[in-house]
Every structure is written in structure tokens, then in C-alpha cells.
Task: inverse folding
């Protein structure tokens, strides 16, 4: 494509899917949390019954300067950590000494949630709000990540890689609804309304092995057909173990980030990326159960379009 050529429009296939998964107005014109509305008190009570052994599995990658970002996404820098106090006696000699730190990072640099305002298309955000309500100084006026409170629910691991008999999907593999159903059958756990679904591709193994560039591109991820699968099951949120969330490069030529637009903009469903699902996959296999209690509270940065998260699964 030459610099003078405009990129292709989203196209009729995208808009047909968008119409089928659209949730605008479903929870009212002022709604800012989308499918998180599906995590009801009843859902939480049922989720608590999944705790049987108390085994706790952390799902976040370490936040460090040598992190997962390798330059694919401009401005999304890995954490830069610095000390601003080291054993400083703030109230005079012989008093208690303190050490303090600061960090500079992209909020989507590590294991994170994308807020509903992370993506827009055709000048619109979720629930039909104008995209220009995200501003340079205030960030997201509407549906910032600080509005996404209390993200705890029943989690279900759909281990697509192991359901296909491999440890890691090939780069560029687009995870289809058929893959999700096969993983659901493999898990023996049916996805229910209000669940948070974790999709394992095994891709994070590339980063854990030290290859940051190989982790980012090409990458397996979700197909443009999967939003309808999640919509039909009233899933509350979805996360996976890849940098781009969806298959990259795109499965439809020149249609970039359509799953982001369908999930975040049309459906109002949060996405999580760079989750480390390796220990969880092992634990679920050992215990032969793939449903658990999941706590994945976002850091409430006001007006942010994404945030780091340190999720934990409890079996």
C-alpha cells in the first residue's frame, strides 16, 4: 500500500458481525461498564463454590524494564523503575528510615486490561459515545478503566493449545469458535453467563524463553468470528496470553484489530493481554478441573484506557 493510498474500510463482513454483537443501550444509555454488568451477586456466589483446595495461581508477568514490549506498539514502554528515597531518615537522625520508588510505564505494557475506551471505530466508542471524549489531558471522560470496578467472577480456562494436542499454537493461528468449543469440551466446564474466559495459546512461552520479538509477531490470537461466540454466552470479559489478543497479522487482509473493535466498542467487553496462563494450565490439568474463582481487579487510574492487573486464580 503506497502512502497516498487510504486503508480499506472495515467492510461489510465486519459491520454485519458488529450488528449482531452490539450491546449499545442494553444496560441503559449511560452505562460505562458493558458486559461487566453480567457479573451479578448470584454469579459471585456461584463463583465462590469453585474454591475447593484454596490453591492460588498468580497470572501476571513480572513488571520489569526488560518486559514484553519490544517496540511493536509506539509509546508502550516497559516499566522504568527508580528509587527516590533510600533509607532516608525523614524526621531526623535516629528516626525510622524509609525507601520509596517511582515507575514510568505504559499502562498496557505488561499483564493488563484494555478499557472499553482503548479502541474506537467510525468515530464512536462503546454505547455510541463520541471517540473525541478521549482527550490529551483528561484521558477517557467516559468508560475509563476506573469505572470497571469489582472484576471478580468465575473463571474458565479454555486451553486451546492443549485441546489441540500441542503445547503452543503456531504463530498467526486464528482461534475459532470451533477451537473454543473443543477447549470447552476438553475442560469439561461449560462457559456460563458472567464468566471471565481465559484463552491459552501457549504464546507467552516465547517471551518466557527470552524471545521478546518472537512473542509479538506473528502471533496466535482470537479470530474475528469469536466475538459472536462470547456474545451468545454472555461472557463478562476475556483475556489471553498474547501481546495482540487477536491473530496477528490479521486473518482478513488489511483488516487490522477488528476483534478489538467488536469486543470493546460494539459489545462493551473488556480484553486482557499478556496473561501468564502456564502455571494455571498445569494446575488445572493436575486437578482435572478448569473452572475457578478469579480475582482480576484493575488499578483504578482515572481516565485511563488500560491498566496493569495482577490477577489470581483460586482453585
Result:
Amino acid at each position: 500500500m503506497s502512502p497516498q493510498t487510504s486503508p480499506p474500510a472495515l467492510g461489510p463482513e465486519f459491520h454485519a458481525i458488529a450488528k449482531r454483537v452490539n450491546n449499545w443501550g442494553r444496560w441503559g444509555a449511560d452505562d460505562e461498564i458493558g458486559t461487566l454488568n453480567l457479573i451479578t451477586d448470584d454469579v459471585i456466589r456461584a463463583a465462590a463454590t469453585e474454591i475447593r483446595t484454596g490453591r492460588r495461581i498468580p497470572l501476571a508477568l513480572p513488571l520489569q524494564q526488560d518486559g514484553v514490549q519490544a517496540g511493536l506498539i509506539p509509546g508502550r514502554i516497559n516499566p522504568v523503575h527508580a528509587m527516590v528515597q533510600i533509607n532516608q531518615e525523614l524526621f531526623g537522625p535516629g528516626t525510622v528510615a524509609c525507601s520509596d520508588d517511582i515507575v514510568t510505564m505504559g499502562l498496557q505494557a505488561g499483564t493488563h486490561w484494555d478499557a472499553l475506551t482503548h479502541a474506537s471505530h467510525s468515530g464512536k466508542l462503546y454505547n455510541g459515545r463520541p471517540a473525541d471524549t478521549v482527550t490529551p489531558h483528561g484521558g477517557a471522560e467516559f468508560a475509563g478503566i476506573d469505572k470497571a470496578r469489582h472484576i471478580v467472577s468465575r473463571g474458565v480456562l479454555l486451553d486451546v493449545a492443549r485441546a489441540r494436542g500441542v503445547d503452543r499454537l503456531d504463530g498467526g493461528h486464528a482461534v475459532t469458535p470451533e477451537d473454543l468449543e473443543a477447549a470447552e469440551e476438553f475442560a469439561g466446564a461449560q462457559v456460563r453467563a458472567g464468566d471471565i474466559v481465559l484463552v491459552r495459546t501457549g504464546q507467552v512461552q516465547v517471551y518466557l524463553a527470552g524471545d521478546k520479538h518472537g512473542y509479538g509477531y506473528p502471533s496466535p490470537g482470537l479470530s474475528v468470528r469469536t466475538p459472536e461466540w462470547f456474545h451468545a454466552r454472555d461472557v463478562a470479559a476475556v483475556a489471553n496470553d498474547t501481546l495482540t489478543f487477536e491473530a496477528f497479522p490479521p486473518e482478513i487482509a488489511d483488516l487490522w484489530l477488528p476483534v478489538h473493535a467488536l469486543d470493546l466498542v460494539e459489545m462493551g467487553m473488556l480484553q486482557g493481554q499478556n496473561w501468564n496462563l502456564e502455571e494455571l494450565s498445569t494446575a488445572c490439568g493436575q486437578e482435572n478441573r478448569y473452572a475457578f474463582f478469579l480475582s482480576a481487579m484493575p488499578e483504578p487510574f482515572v481516565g485511563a484506557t488500560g491498566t496493569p492487573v495482577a490477577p489470581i486464580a483460586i482453585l
In short: The longest helix spans residues 11-21.
